[in-house]
């Protein structure tokens, strides 16, 4: 009996010490709206894991990741190893039908924009790549319809746009009719400044083709056809800034200088951990390691470097942009590691390096960066994509967001846990910046 008890205790003890660790899911009982349940964690060396009797592949460091398709209602998922059995219960809720809003037209009315940097959009939804302008405070608009949370803005005979209802207030002035004053272009060695002035604040849009930035100001208060266009020739590498003072727009186009200032942005920080890897590592820590290495490499090459954070603290997205602007950064590099979107069935397909950009002036750096980072790390090219991230939206700099690898991919985790990962990732990013700068 005594021997049996010792054996039993030894067995329980072994179970405690050798059992696998799960990073995801966070709870044993969950109500979710997702199509898949993700199981991400680390097995001990001798452990063989099965999830609902399917054997799970573990990487050399024990990392594993697996997704289970959920049916509506109750799902029972059993995670088993030679040491440990755990039962997880996922309750999948019915998918919520998206509300279809209908459009209502009404008599045109004047409205005024409440805040600076208010997005004007091509469609009545507040996500995606649909921003056509960022309007300034006190811009007056003609609004002639509504759909859901949006108003329709009349810009000209053929052009309408959308603005959040909450971003504007009624403007009680039926006689508002700004007049055109003057238009001017000044050229300097490394810049050009374009101004267009009216007697009141009017909406604008910017667009780009291969050779030009097309800046348009709309004056629907005068007529349907009252559109003023400034075509701004652009060099290969540039940034620009739009300002409105009184009724006067000025667009300053800067040619990227030889002596660059690079803003290094270590993603997340403080209470914002970012993604969590199979082994429980936090994205914010690895981002900071890469950022510090990048700072060293670039400083040694004589590049001026500014950091958004140098320790583990919270920095808001607005502050990250502010730091870049205050230091007149020419290039903004945001450093991250990716995680698996839960809608993907084959969890192992999501691996490698992906690069994001928003404005056309950043596309070339994004492409160069994908080549330089993947060749420095030996990672797979996961793609160059556009995304509406707050730190990438300003046109004041060339901006890219680098997702060096996937935190939740077991094979990537072997790599990002290796000793030289941060240094190699930083070298890849630095190579990309240098190559872009010297082109
Ligand atoms: Zn991140």
Structure, described:
- The chain has 439 residues and is of the alpha+beta class.
- Helices cover 19% and strands 39% of the residues.
- It has helices at 2-18, 283-300, 317-326, 363-377, 410-416, 421-438; strands spanning 21-24, 29-32, 36-42, 50-51, 54-55, 63-69, 73-80, 85-92, 104-113, 118-121, 131-135, 140-147, 150-154, 160-164, 168-170, 180-187, 191-198, 204-208, 212-218, 227-233, 238-245, 248-255, 261-266, 304-307, 331-338, 353-357, 381-386, 398-406.
- The strands form seven sheets. The protein has a six-stranded mixed beta sheet, with helices on both faces.
- Strand 4 (50-51) and strand 5 form a beta hairpin.
- Residues 10-17 have low confidence and may be disordered.
- The structure holds zinc ion.
- The site of zinc ion (ZN) has 6 residues, from loops.
